[in-house]
Amino acid sequence: MKLIITMIQGFCMALADSVPGVSGGTIAFIMGFYDKFIGSIHDIAFKKGEDRKNALYFLIKLGLGWIVGMALAALVLSSLFESHIYVVSSLFIGFIAGAIPLIVKEEKESYKDVGKGILFAVLGIAFVVGLTWLNGRIEATSDLAAFSVGLGVKLFFIGMFAISAMFLPGISGSTLLLVFGVYMPIMAAIKEILHFNLAYFPALFVFGLGIIFGALTVVKVIKVCLDKFRTQTVYMILGMMLGSFYAIVMGPTTLKNVMPAMSFDTFHIIACVAGLALVLGMQFVKSKTED
Fold first, then answer.
1. Tens place of pLDDT for every residue, the chain, 291 residues?
2. Per-residue H/E/C for the chain
3. What are the phi and psi torsion angles at 192 (to 5°)?
4. Domain boundaries in the chain?
5. In whole angstroms, what is the distance from residue 101 CA to residue 89 CA?
6. How far apart are CA 108 and CA 112, in angstroms?
């Protein structure tokens, strides 16, 4: 049963990671395994013996679910994101709106010290809004099949920064991929690999190396922040989640065929309510896990 639940957690993280504006870290936070997720990566990199073995076992289970979720996203959600952007955006607005009070409740002791954390909340908002503003101002990469040394270096650093964002609730790695102009090319490359088009393998391999390097370096910083500066860290997480509303609203402007930013006329209330229901469902899974 624990194997299935952990795989479901990884699956949900992948779905969130694949859509700009939402982070897999947010899913981990909502479902109550964020500290274990960060701690496991930390143990793999910096510890030995039983700690490393247990961490590896947990991450393998989580990774299996993540791979299935990302494959589904590459095959289905990327097209859905293009054709029904306002519905998908409304869904995730509901998701984030439902997640924020749950996270505040989960970390209520940390949020009591407003004076110590409010500046970090503002910094979190500014960080996400700033990244979203940058989106579209950096030249996009069109085809990852045309691999070169320059493209490889670029993809390595983008992968490193993107995985760092995926670890942080509130800022999506996909948003960073959009900022650097490689979101759709990466999703298209994954789709091509799933169809056995190996021309895209070198680019994705180098991108993956960047992800691994970023994971091993940033996780130490995040763990120290959670252990020693938890109030400031959770306030910054809250700020990044609030800032993600702006990222989601501006999502349609990042598409290959640019569309207007979301407005009240294009907002889908039913999809928003579905997002709220999705959060409640995750809370239900979490409660069953704890039981």
1. 677 878 888 888 887 777 665 677 777 877 778 888 888 888 887 777 888 888 888 889 998 988 888 887 777 766 676 678 888 888 878 888 887 887 788 778 888 888 888 999 999 889 878 877 765 555 555 678 878 888 888 889 888 878 877 777 656 677 677 667 777 788 788 888 888 888 889 999 999 999 888 877 777 787 788 788 889 888 988 888 788 788 778 877 766 677 888 999 999 999 999 988 887 877 776 676 665
2. CHHHHHHHHHHHHHHHHCCCCCCHHHHHHHCCCHHHHHHHHHHHHHCCHHHHHHHHHHHHHHHHHHHHHHHHHHHHHHHHHHHCHHHHHHHHHHHHHHHHHHHHHHCHHHHCCHHHHHHHHHHHHHHHHHHHHHCCCCCCCCCCCCCCHHHHHHHHHHHHHHHHHHCCCCCCHHHHHHHCCCHHHHHHHHHHHHCCCHHHHHHHHHHHHHHHHHHHHHHHHHHHHHHHCHHHHHHHHHHHHHHHHHHHHCHHHHCCCCCCCCCCCCCCHHHHHHHHHHHHHHHHHHHHHHC
3. -65, -40
4. 2-290
5. 20
6. 6
Determine the residue type at 88: V
